[in-house]
Amino acid sequence: MSNPKPAIARGKALRSQAREIVYNVFQYFTTKKNDDNAKYNVCEVTSEATGVSARTVGYIMKEAGNQTASDCTGPLFVTPTKSKPHKKVIAADEFTDAAIQNKIREFYTVRKECPTLKTLCAALASDEVLDCSRSYLRKRLATSGFKWKKCQSNRKVLIERPEIAAWRARYLRTINTYRIEGKNIVYLDETYVQASLGVSTCWQSNEKLGALQQIGRVTD
To answer: In angstroms, rounded to a whole number, what is the distance separating the alpha carbons of residues 8 and 165?
Structure first.
């Protein structure tokens, strides 16, 4: 008996109705073989008749055999489904949130960079703080009060920071002394506050301002 290529594509799941048909065809050939006292492989002829591989026929018959014999209505077949991959559960707590905030502060103060979701994700994963997607990190930042919004003016820093106000007062007193003494004053250049962070938006919260827009200038 010839063995043609099965008509059902390999790897394609058979629905419950198709599995029941294969089962009935197998039962038919089994009964016919016994009645005719024939000599052939029931699994192979069932495969040839239905277009299902012999291995699949064997799986279906095994599935039917595993069901209780007391079921007078016959075996009940179900359509097999692929198991969906479970989402990775990420454990994050207040200590993780604090580590994220420290990493953001490190970007501003040490690296002199404005962190983005991409660079922040990479840095957190590299330090084994948190290995997650950008969307999850965005949610964690929102939970901690961080938003990606327009930077505040650096003039606010010049007004609010007492060390800047004290520095300005010392500078003005020194300049006034030099002028009284008749010394030549040479202005070399201008310096922006946070000159290396030329951005208009950044991650910031009510407690942490992040980068500031380059508006106010301090003269050297």
So the answer is: 81
pTM assigned to the model: 0.41
* Rounded CA separation 25/206 (Å): 72
Please give the pLDDT value at position 69. 52
pLDDT tens digits for 85-96? Answer: 666 666 677 888
- The mean pLDDT value for 205-219 works out to 58
DSSP 154-198: THHHHHH-HHHHHHHHHHHHHHHHHHHTT-------EEETTTT--
Distance of CA 213 to the CA centre of its chain: 31
CB proximity list for 149: less than 8 A, separation 6 or greater: 201, 202, 204
Residue 16 corresponds to which tokens in the numbers above? 């419950």
**E strand segments, 32-146:** none
Give the start-to-end residue ranges of the domains of the chain. Answer: 1-78, 94-219
Q: Taking a C-beta distance cutoff of 8 angstroms, is the pair 49, 32 a contact?
A: no
Beta bridge partners of 218: 191
* d(C-alpha 165, C-alpha 218), whole Å: 11
Q: If you search the block for the tokens 């983005």, which residue do you land on?
A: 116
142: which 2 tokens?
């929102």
Query: Measured at the alpha carbon of residue 161, what is the angle toward residues 158 and 167, in degrees to the nearest 5?
Result: 75
Residue pLDDT, tens place only, 27-44: 888 888 888 887 888 888
**12: its two tokens:** 């394609």
